[in-house]
């Protein structure tokens, strides 16, 4: 009887969660379409022509605005379910923060593709050419080796003399770290790359160490790779497969999950291939080459095990939280300050218990370390890379903690906010929005400019300072 009652509660929670996510997705999509229609129906638009930008070429001339004498560009990298410039009409994932500086790029990467695939896409977005996912990787995961073509890179002069500042939100921060490691490993055929191509990495609610949210949504805590038979992620999987199979060109130009290299269109796999994908015998969800396995604690540890923190790159991280302590319990910090999409998630994550019959993901694991969260990621995960090995780090409580700013160290700051406080809707964050992004952009422009000797920070060795 108790088991039946618990199963009923889980089904109710799944139903409510699915409805909330569908409604929010519909709200975002309809807002973007409404904006586009409004622009086309303006009185000065005599010819109404509903057309979506071709994302592959929408920024092909952006590189012309940069030259050798310019400051390094700042590249804003979106997170899961995110989108870059040119998608969803006039909507901005970073809520217009890209307008704060003339030298900002906002790439459109796969919204649900793996960290690895997105890092490869980001490289070719900047340097130009056809995206090459790598022969070995492509064969292992069953997709095409080559993807989108960038006839002209958005910053083709990118090298160690022309480095780039990266700002990543959520999974976007981990994408940049993987990209930098690929640069160090010279993983791009025909390019003599180096980790110093990355001048700085700033993480905004970055997914460094995984999240317990993935287990609530359906990932199995036993391995961090497979999904439970009935869960929110299974519904997401089915929706994505149907979306890609119908392959409606104008709709996919408007928003794309990024799985084109898996060739799930009806034109290529037919009905039998569609059935195979639905049954879990083919496609990204069958092979595990998608974003959620990378966001489990186990998956993040697999990535972190071979990603370095490099001595000549500047690192900064903003970790968000929407929880507080009350009578020795971790609870949401209020109601009004948390987005309705995330309130139940904040509550769930603050009560997380790792299954007693499953080995812990790492030695020394404690549930209470993972209770503080922002509704999508655990605060412990966002501070700095720490599992399986802690990277050099320093807690920032005042500006003086960053003076002088030294490379090779993760400076991290904990701020009040939920996971989407500083994206999508600028009004929600209020004045905090400008304070955060102004701080990030100012640091990129004034405190981490390797080519200018007058702004070089102290290069002395640093001893790790724990929080």
From TrEMBL:
Question: Where does the record place it?
Answer: Secreted
Q: Name one GO cellular component term.
A: extracellular region
TM region positions: 12-35
A Gene Ontology annotation in the biological process aspect, one of them, is: lipid metabolic process
A Pfam family per the record: Lip_C
Domain of life per record: Eukaryota
InterPro entries recorded: AB_hydrolase_fold, Lip-like_C
Q: Offer an example of a GO molecular function term for this protein.
A: hydrolase activity
The main location class comes to: secreted
**PANTHER family for the chain:** ALPHA/BETA-HYDROLASES SUPERFAMILY PROTEIN (PTHR34043), ALPHA_BETA-HYDROLASES SUPERFAMILY PROTEIN (PTHR34043:SF3)
- The name this protein carries in UniProt is Lipase-like C-terminal domain-containing protein
List the source organism: Saponaria officinalis (Common soapwort)
């Amino acid at each position: 009887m108790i088991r039946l009652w618990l199963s009923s509660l889980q089904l109710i929670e799944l139903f409510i969660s699915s409805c909330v996510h569908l409604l929010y997705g519909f709200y975002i999509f309809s807002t973007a379409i409404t904006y586009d229609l409004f622009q086309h129906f303006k009185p000065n638009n005599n010819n109404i022509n509903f057309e979506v930008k071709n994302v592959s070429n929408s920024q092909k001339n952006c590189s012309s605005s940069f030259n050798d004498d310019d400051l390094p560009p700042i590249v804003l990298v979106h997170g899961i379910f995110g989108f870059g410039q040119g998608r969803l009409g006039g909507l901005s994932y970073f809520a217009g923060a890209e307008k704060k500086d003339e030298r900002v790029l906002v790439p459109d990467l796969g919204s649900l593709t793996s960290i690895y695939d997105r890092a490869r896409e980001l490289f070719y977005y900047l340097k130009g050419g056809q995206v090459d996912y790598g022969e070995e990787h492509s064969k292992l995961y069953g997709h095409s080796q080559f993807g989108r073509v960038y006839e002209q890179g958005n910053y083709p002069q990118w090298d160690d003399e022309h480095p780039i500042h990266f700002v990543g939100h959520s999974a976007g921060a981990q994408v940049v770290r993987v990209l930098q490691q690929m640069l160090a490993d010279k993983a791009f055929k025909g390019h003599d790359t180096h980790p110093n191509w990355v001048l700085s990495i700033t993480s905004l609610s970055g997914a460094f160490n995984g999240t317990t949210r993935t287990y609530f949504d359906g990932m199995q805590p036993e391995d961090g790779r497979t999904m439970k038979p009935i869960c929110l992620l299974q519904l997401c999987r089915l929706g994505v497969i149907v979306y890609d199979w119908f392959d409606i060109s104008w709709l996919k130009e408007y928003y794309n999950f990024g799985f084109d290299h898996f060739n799930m269109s009806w034109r290529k796999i037919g009905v039998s291939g569609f059935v195979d994908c639905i049954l879990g015998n083919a496609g990204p969800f069958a092979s595990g080459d998608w974003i959620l396995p990378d966001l489990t604690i186990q998956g993040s540890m697999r990535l972190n095990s071979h990603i370095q923190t490099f001595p000549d790159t500047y690192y900064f991280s903003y970790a968000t939280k929407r929880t507080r302590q009350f009578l020795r319990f971790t609870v949401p910090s209020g109601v009004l300050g948390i987005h309705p999409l995330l309130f139940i998630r904040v509550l769930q994550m603050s009560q997380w218990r790792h299954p007693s019959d499953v080995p812990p993901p790492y030695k020394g694991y404690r549930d209470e370390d993972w209770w503080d969260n922002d509704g999508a990621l655990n605060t412990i995960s966002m501070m700095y890379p720490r599992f399986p090995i802690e990277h050099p780090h320093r807690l920032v409580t005042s500006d003086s903690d960053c003076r002088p700013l030294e490379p090779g160290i993760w400076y991290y700051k904990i701020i009040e906010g939920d996971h989407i406080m500083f994206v999508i809707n600028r009004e929600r964050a209020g004045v905090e929005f400008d304070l955060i992004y102004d701080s990030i952009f100012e640091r990129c422009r004034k405190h981490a400019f390797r080519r200018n000797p007058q702004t070089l920070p102290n290069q002395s060795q640093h001893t790790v300072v724990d929080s």
